[in-house]
């Protein structure tokens, strides 16, 4: 289950409590994996039971207790095994392409306005992913800064470059979608 | 729920029984929506209860009965409403990008072999989508042939062109992924 691996990958940078993890995922629609709070807490408990992470109660002030989770050796091993394994691709379920496949059944104007909203949404993602890519290249995200503390300085550029490249890929895919949507607008207008 | 809309879109071409629909979805990993048999049958029953489709028992030979489903006026209206509405985009959950984001944690050789398997899988999709696109442009898929029987001949080229363009988009996205994966291979090799 990928949420577990997303959490392991984040916790490898530094220990965090559930609230911090929820905030990280909330702030990360431009990231590669989304998860609502309702999934994060139960998954953390399962992962703790499975020995992938370890919770430690943290006392703040006089009463507030939060559980801070850190990755265990076993969790690190599980993450590395998953990373090095080729996985069966997820089944193709592309809701927007499904919608576009039947655009001939509605007025061209309505189809065009759906396409324009899609273009705006993809362009927003491009802006956010591009900014995130640049922050990674500049080694200027909170998580990357923490993570690099435990890595040899000689590897910092390569690590930042590999991570930034993932978001360059997201941008390229979103750009291919925008180009396709513009071509669809042209085709829709053509035949009316 | 998109499976309902996928089923409505397919049944708009012609009435089909559950077995034919299952075969359609089984043969369609290169399509835009995958669904296992275990989802198709219960969804058809729900859709029948909701009046979106209508089942008719078909007697074949002396005893075999199959329910043949056709789309109702209400189903057609629901499909058109869905098609003309901009929907909230699905949350970003890109399992492969998540994996790639942590490639710095494993040997470059292992990461490279995962990337190579990914390239092969995307290239396979490209081959299938490209073939499907050409079959649509040639108006030579079973479903499109059925569908065009109920459309004015003057619209046939436009309908085929719009549908084919959806698969041109799928090809472009998969190609962007392949290009990205090749760049990642280069980056992985560079720093070792």
UniProtKB/TrEMBL annotation, chains A, B:
<dbReference type="InterPro" id="IPR036388">
    <property type="entry name" value="WH-like_DNA-bd_sf"/>
</dbReference>
<dbReference type="Pfam" id="PF03551">
    <property type="entry name" value="PadR"/>
</dbReference>
<dbReference type="InterPro" id="IPR036390">
    <property type="entry name" value="WH_DNA-bd_sf"/>
</dbReference>
<protein>
    <submittedName>
        <fullName>PadR family transcriptional regulator</fullName>
    </submittedName>
</protein>
<feature type="domain" description="Transcription regulator PadR N-terminal">
    <location>
        <begin position="7"/>
        <end position="80"/>
    </location>
</feature>
<dbReference type="InterPro" id="IPR005149">
    <property type="entry name" value="Tscrpt_reg_PadR_N"/>
</dbReference>
